[in-house]
């Protein structure tokens, strides 16, 4: 009977040792999984930092774009104003040119008349 107990105790010890070994393997497996998860958390944290930097850069670029849009709109208004002024100046110059052309035609006509009158007067004296 004692041998039966010793045999039973030995079997129990073997079963216990197997369970302990299995438990240690499970612990090791869980430790490895934990390390992997911590590594993934670190990677996620790095990605979050990158995303935060990109979001900040995007916001800064968006603000700069808005500034440039305002500047471009101001420049466009200024160019339209200059274009309008140039059209007005051009119109004035054309009007002035027409006045001068008309005056020159009148002057030319007057000079031709004067030449004719002078020729007539000269012919009377000859």
Q: What does this protein structure show overall?
A:
Keywords: Coiled coil. The structure is a single chain. 0% of the residues are buried. By secondary structure, the protein is mainly alpha-helical. 98% of the residues lie in helices and 0% in strands.
Measured distance between first and last alpha carbons: 180 Å
Quaternary structure of the protein? single chain
Largest sheet: none
Kindly state the percentage of residues in helix.
over 70%
Q: Low-confidence parts lasting 5 or more residues at pLDDT below 50? A: none
Number of DSSP E strands: 0
| SSE string, helices as H and strands as E | H
Radius of gyration: 53 Å
Mean pLDDT: 91
Helical run tally: 1
Our estimate of the beta-strand percent is under 5%
Class computed from helices, strands and strand pairing: mainly alpha
The rough form would be described as rod-shaped
Coiled coil: 13-103
Keywords: Coiled coil
Relevant terms:
mainly alpha, 98% helix, rod-shaped, 126 residues
Q: In brief, what are we looking at here?
A:
Residues 13-103 form a coiled coil. The chain has 1 helix and no strands.
What's the arrangement of secondary structure elements?
Elements: H1 2-125
